């Protein structure tokens, strides 16, 4: 805690220096990336978005999104670290903008920067594989925003919207299969990686819920189809089954993941299941919402976002 306070004081001091905000550098990118992580823990998601947007802008200014620029301007021994930082900024950007409903700072078509190499360390390698898979999932979030939530998407016909939904659904299913192929047991902190993978599946189902809800014609009332209902229920089921959210899970690294989960969690699956409950009064939906509420109640002392969601879900019950 004392080290963290020292870092926070130094960061506040650096913010008073105009050059920290205006001078693109690798060091400043890391500074704002760390600040975004801290803001998400508090949680102050809008502040995190501000910090990560600054970091993303510096990445663009330095050309970190382009392979040729990085190879020309960064020494070979430093490129792996720069790539790792760049893709971490990308992931935080995608996670926060999707929750807040903002526009991403990155355009996938403009990025040709490869990932950092997979580690030769058998304990680190599964985490690197997970990082790559999660990046692929984040790309699907961006694809969904561009193809289904943009102004141009409102003019698409039913056939075009269905084609988009089918494409995203197929790609996310492939990503989930790749996720399952990771050897968790060989990883450093295998339980934590298992938690992270479970959380990733939850986010995948949440995104699929949004994708299938967006299948409706935006000019008319949004319709909840069968696939939308199915993915919403799967999202809540996986949400209630993430081990680190269970009562008694108190490891610091688990707490950090719990904070991340609730900060980046989409409210859409809860809303869809609630609407289905109002229509059909299915006891299984009521039970699912009750289990979700219990998980939120269990974790509200660990996460302010969990406490906020808990209040909302309690209205459903």
UniProtKB/TrEMBL annotation:
Q: List all membrane-crossing ranges.
A: 257-277
Subcellular location field: Nucleus
Domain of life of the organism in this record? Eukaryota
Q: Does the keyword Transmembrane helix apply?
A: yes
Q: Name one GO biological process term.
A: DNA-templated transcription
- InterPro entries named in the record: AtrR-like, XnlR_reg_dom
The entry lists its GO molecular-function terms as: DNA binding; DNA-binding transcription factor activity; zinc ion binding
Primary location group: nucleus
Give every Xylanolytic transcriptional activator regulatory domain span: 48-122
Which keywords has UniProt assigned to this entry?
A: DNA-binding, Membrane, Nucleus, Transcription, Transcription regulation, Transmembrane, Transmembrane helix
Q: Which SMART domains match?
A: Fungal_trans
One Pfam annotation, family name?
A: Fungal_trans
* Listed GO CC annotations: nucleus
Membrane listed as a keyword: yes
Q: What is this protein called?
A: Xylanolytic transcriptional activator regulatory domain-containing protein
Taxonomy of the source species: Eukaryota, Fungi, Dikarya, Ascomycota, Pezizomycotina
